[in-house]
Amino acid sequence: MQSFVQNFFNLEIYAAVLPYLLQGLWTTVWLSAIVIPLGAAAGLALALGLTQSAGRLVRGAIVVWVDFFRAFPPLVLLILIYFGGPFLGVELNKVSAVVLAFVLNNSSYFAEVFRAGLEGVDKGQMEASRSTGLTRAQALRHVVVPQAVRNVLPDLVGNGIEIVKLTSIASVVAIPELLRSARDAQSLVFNPSPVMLAALIYLALLWPLTRWLGRLEHRRARA
Amino acid sequence: MSGDSGFLFTFFNLAVAKQYWPAIGMGMLVTVGVGLAVVATGTALGLALAVLRSFGLRLLALPIVVFADVMRSLPPLVVMIVLYFGLPALGLPMSAFAVTWVALSLVLAAYAEESIWAGILAVPPGQLEAARSTGMGWWQGMRCVVLPQALRRAVPPLTNRIIATTKNTALGSVVALNEILNNAQGATSHAGNPTPLVMASVAYLIVFMPLVFASRGVERRWGRA
To answer: I need a labelling partner for A64 at 20 to 30 A (CA). Which of A44, A165, B50, B92 fits?
Structure first.
């Protein structure tokens, strides 16, 4: 018990490393704030291409794109971009490599979610909007997409939470986000307490969101 | 970097590929092995927890809910690293394989429990009551009437989660599990050439593309019920 507390819940170490870990948390937050909107926008574009485009070729290419990145582990993608890029003569800085890998990966998940949402909107909505004189783009923007988003709101939130969790893999390329800060601290104090503290911070951040997601899903299940 | 031949030499170097394909192949075996182990224990544990939760005992349900919430809130890599560095400190050494297996199983179990529990909730209580009134025991009614319907609903979200979790076996490379990515990174730095990383990418696609296709089939068959 003594050594358990020493190694996991060492309050002295917690106090010493907390400021450093909070800096890491800030990096986690802004990284998420960049990649989630970018991924969602790319996903929406893919989903619109998939559901609104008449071209078979376009739709086929999007399906291949989505399936490809659903099958590709994000960590492998990140490492391929980060370590493979320089061999191509493309020296990406760490943050750009992470953002690129994340957006490629997320866009496919968001595309799947938006596709389900768009398919859930009745065709008559578009037809009715067109008949009132709206252009196709206007109808999408003001009528179809808002309903699609509402249809799949829980899935969008769930995706967002997954991405915040996924930012932890940026630690592998030495971006000082929450997990990386904790591991750096761990190697300084020779004690795994900082990693445990990081886990507690992740919990404090994400548990409320997970609960909220549960409520959203519950509400949809009853509707 | 001189045009096409430079590109081929760098990323599709046959000499390098020839030298390192056994390492990538062994990595594939490990990836598939860990993946299968995780799917088996993770879904079994998730199913067991969902059934325990349906007993309706608060004392039993509360720890299950907390477990599921915690495991769904923590990044899998964090779970893995806590186990990897934490357990030896407690005098419980664990191999990289065991750490990856246990960590991902716990994560998958949490999601599986939630999906199956949602499935159980979606079966009207009258079903179990009717089963009981025909003389079935609680367990019989659960097993033969409620669970088959609940699982049917749980299959589409569960297949997606299984793909996501088995892809996370790549995280095992962080704790030096000798799976595809780990072996490819070793080979890349050894050869000074990124061809093994390209081979690893192909290897992952060979392993996971069939899963993605299968999940599309599953969604079509079970999804819009």
So the answer is: A165
